[in-house]
Amino acid sequence: MTDIIKKQKTEGDPTPLGSSSGKIIDREVIVASEEARRIIEAAKAHAAQVAATAQAAREQAAEQGHQEGYERGMGEWLRETQKVHEGLKGFIEQARPQLVKLALRVAEKILRQKLEMSPEAVVPMVDEALRSVRAQQQAKIFLRVHPADREVLEVRRQRWLERYPSIASLDIIGDESLQRGGCRLETDFGMVDATIETQIRVIERHLLGDSAGQSGV
After folding, report:
1. Strand pairing report for 5-7 and 183-187
2. b vs e for 60-99, b when ≥16 Cβ sit within 10 Å of the residue's Cβ?
3. What is the DSSP letter of 119?
4. How far, in Å, CA of 202 to CA of 194, rounded?
5. β-strand pairing of 167-174 with 190-193
6. Residue 141 belongs to what H/E stretch?
C-alpha cells in the first residue's frame, strides 16, 4: 500500500523535484548508470583483491615446505582473507545508500514516463488519498493536482462523492507547482501529501532509516 504523508495546514509544502523531460533516457539516468557502473567496478576490484591475497598466501605456505611454515602461511592467509573480507563488507555497507538512491531515481524516472503515457495512472493515488480522510464527517476537500491530470479526475468526482458519503464537497484544482501523478488533499483538519516525490522519500526512509530523511536527498 502506498504511504500517505499527513501534515497540518500550518506546515510548508515540500519542495517539488525537477520535472521530467519526457525523454526515455536523459542526463540524470545516464549519470545514475555511470555511478552504478563505478560502484560495480569497485566491488569487482575488491573481489579480485580477495582472490589475489588468498592465492599469494597459499603459494607462500607451499614454498616454505614444512609444517611450521605451512601453519604460519595458513595463519597469514586467514588473517589477510579476514582483513579483505571486512574491508569488502564495509565497502558494501558504504555503497548501499548510493545503490538505494540510484534505484529510486531510476524507478522515479520510469514511473513518470508511465504517467506521461497513461494519465489514468494518477487515479489510484487520488483514491487512496480520499480513503485516508473518509472518516472526517462532512469534510470539504480541495484536491490539488497537476493541470494535465485534472480532466481525467474531474470525470470521477461524482463517483467519489457517492463512494465516500462523509465527503461534503470535492473541488479539483489544477496546480502548476505539482508534478503529474501525485496530489495534495486539503481539508479543514490538515493536508494529505500524496505527491510522487514525497512517496519516494518515504520509501527511502524505510530502506535506509531516518538518516535518509535528514540528509535532505
Report:
1. unpaired
2. bbeeeeeeeeeeebeeebeebeeebeeebeeeeeebebee
3. G
4. 11
5. unpaired
6. strand 139-145
Q: Distance (Å, rounded) from C-alpha 94 to C-alpha 71? A: 34
The C-alpha atoms of residue 39 and residue 98 are separated, in whole angstroms, by 9
Q: Are 178 and 148 in contact (CB under 8 A)?
A: no
Give residues with Cβ within 8 angstroms of 189, minimum separation 6: 133, 136, 139
Residues near 127 by Cβ (< 8 Å), separated by ≥ 6? 160
What SS3 state is found at 113?
A: helix
Look at residue 150 in the predicted model and tell me its pLDDT: 93
What would the pLDDT profile of 162-177 be if each residue is shown by its tens digit? Answer: 999 989 999 999 999 9
Q: Which residues contact 74 (CB under 8 A, 6 or more apart)?
A: 57, 61
Question: How many residues in the chain?
Answer: 217
CB atoms inside a 10 Å sphere around CB 162: 9
